[in-house]
């Protein structure tokens, strides 16, 4: 055998070995994640008081939906005048989660509330749980699913609207001196987000629909499927969808996306009513002529939206601020 032939075979063998090793990395990361669930440190009473449900989850004929609000918001302000009304009209069971400090506190603690909610809803309905989260609420359940692996079998569809999956450069400027813990944690490349996005971003058996807007001015950058909101890794079924891919002239900003945008709503409904993530092709283009999603009362919109904006402004102005990001727990280091 010539020296050149031997060299070629050795090179081929090395390339094959490298390819096999690289393909094994995601599964190895998943295997490392199958650890024991961390201990819940929030009291059972606080967790129970934070979860509000319709009467239907105990007798649900479809997967109940967990609503997780965004930063500065509680469920009533975020979802009470839109999604809750729409789901009630459909007869769909839902629960809404109130996060500590209007979702401005430590997101690591808030994630324990999500763990409790999923466990409770699954136990009461004997069904898997669908998730609908907005902004921080669209990102936060990923922490719960990553570090409490027993939850993964209990979740079916995960719909996230303008989620801060990879943070926002806006928070870097906001947190130059002091800011709320949850905003520290949503800075681009924060310790929290580095821990969250280390290894697989998604998990087998869960369908992920990420809905975002190119006009988002809060979670930025979000100009493409490579922006902050989008997910790409892991073995979950993933689809990242810009509302502008359906309605080219949709100008919905961050606050509109989580409250009244009809395209985001139709995509969420599509995900919840089909296997796998939402598909833009199933959303009728007539949605582009709608001003509001179902559930929003046009005659009350101005008052509801003004209340929403006033709440966001008040919480931003009065939330407790700290001079640094909360320390990661041992389980996430």
By secondary-structure content and strand pairing, the structural class works out as: alpha/beta
Oligomeric category: single chain
Q: How far apart are the termini?
A: 51 Å
CATH class: Alpha Beta
Strand order of the largest sheet: 1-3-2-4-5-6-7
Strand fraction equals: 5-15%
Radius of gyration from CA coordinates: 21 Å
- Which outline best applies? globular
In this structure, how is the largest beta sheet organized? 7 strands, mixed
Instruction: Compute the number of helices.
Output: 12
Account of the 3D structure:
It is a single chain. The protein contains 12 helices and 7 strands. The N and C termini lie far apart (51 Å). It has one domain: Alpha/Beta hydrolase fold, catalytic domain (Rossmann fold, 3-Layer(aba) Sandwich), CATH 3.40.50.1820. Strands 1-3-2-4-5-6-7 form a 7-stranded mixed β-sheet, sandwiched between helices. With 333 residues, it is an alpha/beta fold.
Give a short overview.
The protein is α/β, with parallel strands linked by helices.
Features:
333 residues, alpha/beta, Rossmann fold, 7 strands
Describe the protein's topology.
Layout: H1 3-33, H2 44-50, E1 51-53, E2 65-68, H3 75-79, H4 83-90, E3 94-97, H5 107-125, E4 129-134, H6 136-147, E5 155-161, H7 170-174, H8 181-185, H9 191-197, E6 207-212, E7 237-242, H10 254-257, H11 262-273, H12 301-318
Parallel strand pairs: 2-3, 2-4, 4-5, 5-6, 6-7
Antiparallel strand pairs: 1-3
Helix pairs in contact: 5-6
């Amino acid at each position: 055998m010539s020296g050149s032939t031997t060299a070629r075979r050795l090179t081929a063998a090395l390339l094959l070995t490298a390819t096999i090793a690289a393909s094994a990395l995601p599964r190895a990361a998943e295997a490392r994640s199958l650890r024991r669930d961390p201990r819940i440190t929030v009291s059972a009473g606080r967790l129970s008081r934070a979860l509000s449900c319709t009467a239907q989850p105990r007798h649900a004929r479809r997967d109940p939906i967990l609503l997780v609000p965004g930063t500065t918001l509680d469920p009533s302000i975020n979802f009470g005048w839109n999604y809750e009304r729409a789901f009630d009209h459909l007869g769909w069971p839902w629960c809404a989660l109130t996060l500590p400090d209007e979702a401005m506190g430590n997101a690591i603690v808030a994630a324990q509330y999500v763990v409790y909610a999923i466990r409770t809803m699954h136990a009461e309905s004997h069904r898997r749980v669908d998730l609908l989260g907005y902004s921080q609420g669209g990102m936060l359940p990923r922490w719960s699913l990553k570090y409490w692996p027993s939850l993964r079998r209990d979740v079916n569809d995960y719909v996230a609207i303008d989620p801060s999956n990879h943070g926002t450069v806006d928070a870097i400027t906001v947190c130059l001196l002091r800011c709320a813990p949850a905003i520290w944690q949503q800075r681009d490349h924060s310790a929290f987000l580095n821990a969250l996005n280390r290894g697989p971003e998604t998990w087998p058996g869960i369908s992920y629909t990420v809905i975002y807007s190119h006009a988002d001015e809060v979670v930025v950058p979000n100009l493409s499927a490579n922006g902050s909101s989008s997910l790409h890794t892991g073995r979950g079924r993933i689809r990242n969808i810009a509302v502008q891919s359906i309605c080219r002239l949709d100008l919905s900003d961050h606050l509109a996306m989580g409250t009244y945008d009809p395209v985001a709503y139709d995509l969420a409904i599509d995900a919840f009513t089909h296997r796998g993530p939402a598909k833009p092709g199933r959303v009728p283009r007539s949605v582009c002529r709608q001003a509001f999603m179902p559930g929003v009362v046009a005659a009350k919109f101005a008052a509801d939206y003004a209340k929403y904006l006033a709440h966001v402004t008040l919480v931003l102005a009065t939330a407790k601020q700290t001079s640094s990001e909360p320390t990661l727990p041992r389980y996430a280091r």
